Amino acid sequence: MSKKRKHEEQELPFVALMDTMTNVVGVLIIVLVMVGLSIASAVRKVLSDLPPVEPDEHQKMVEVMKNLPPPPADPKKLEEDKKIAEQKLKKAIEDLKTIDTTSVESQMKFMDLASFNKKLDDARKLRTAQKAAVDKLIAEVERMKALLDETPVFKPAPPTYIRLPNPRPFPEKPNETRVLVAKQGVLFLNEKTFIQPILDGLDKVKSQLEYKEAKIDPFLKMLTQVFGSAPPAQQAWPEIAPFVNTFQMDQVALAYKALAAAKLPANKQVISSIGDISIGLRRTMPAVAEAIAAAVQGNLSKWTALDPSADPLKPSIKATSAGSKISFTWGAKTIEVKATAKDIVDYFVKDLANMPGFKDVSRAKVIYDAFKLQAILERAAGSPMMNSSSYTFKPSVKPGIPYVQLALTPKAGGGETLDQIRGEGSNYQRLMRGVKADEKGVAIFQVMSDAFATYHEARRIADQIGVAATWEFLPRLDLLVNVTTYEVQRFAVTAVAPPAPTGVPAVRIAAPKRALD
Q1: Which of 45, 97, 418, 468 gives the lowest tally of CB atoms within 10 Å of its CB?
Q2: Is 498 left (phi over 0), alpha (psi -120 to 50) or beta?
Q3: Which of 227, 249, 228 is nearest to 240 (CA)?
């Protein structure tokens, strides 16, 4: 029912339209009737006013009438057509009442003038906004064109020499010459040539670099770390001080501590024998002292674990116990001793320490006074013999390092610029020819991160000369050189890895091999 009501509401305008059209038709009919009456009256008047017609004239008029075309329709037929037209009109009115005007109404809404005006305004606003954006882009294009017109024509840099690597084995016992490459130029350093005059000067005063009277002060911090506090360190100092020129004091102190903890004698003879044994076995003094202390307590495994033999089936060290006896074997020699503390210690001190490979091996070892060596090197740094060097140096003693270090700093103008090394008579090219002439000569280019352009040119010259070379990164121009010929006390406890268990070969990862490129 709701749908029918809606349909009737939509048909109301057309009902009114049909009523109007009916009224119009009625009016037209009335008008036609009135026109007909007026015509009839006019005809009667015309006929009454006409003069009398003669027979001849009448005959002529009849002839004319006969010659006229027939009327378009019979009045009766017109009346019938009129009725049919009225019926069709009535049917058309009824059909108009049932016509669906929904699409027409939607079209009328679509053709709403206000909505069209609103859309037109929105289009104008959009066009204005887009025009502003386009104008901005055009202005930017014009600005970029102006900048492009002012930009100079790019001229590429000259080509850079780049070589393909050619890996080759590094020579054995090479004579290395360092070429330090910075952005401004290159510096040269042959460590052997640089340090040899220094070593020659030290050899002349070698005896003055040994400890004459060892004082505990430089060692107190390290000894306190070993013994836990200062008093035990000071108490042990008289026993360990005589070894200051032979062994590292942290190793002597740890060996003394291990013997004292086992209540074994820790005198000069015992410590000296332990030092000789440690050198012969290539082990540390504390490891040997702890092995002796463990053997006294009946544990022989620590001593056999120090075996230096690489073949577990052919050990150099054997130790077995049977009842109150212990058999110690070194190589082919076996000695049986009583399983008492004195006899076990005597085996190591009197028997093993006097065998070939152990006896007095520590006499060839010398450890020097680091501070005396530092003072002499400081005087050498200011001597005239260093005027020709491209570097100044400053010696330093650092805990944990058994050598005095030389901190090298390049002198101003000590090297050569990129333009200078291109000359055939330059120091750089003379140096490269000298490296080429040396059968073991190798040039090590140490390149700073911003100096590869300089390195490429320097390497191009070296390759033309035919120098064996390689390269590596250099974080800074300042270098550290160790005076390794003179071992000094390190004043620090150095941790040592324990030996591998017996029968298990130690796993060692070899460092990457250097190679020429």
Answers
A1: 45
A2: beta
A3: 249
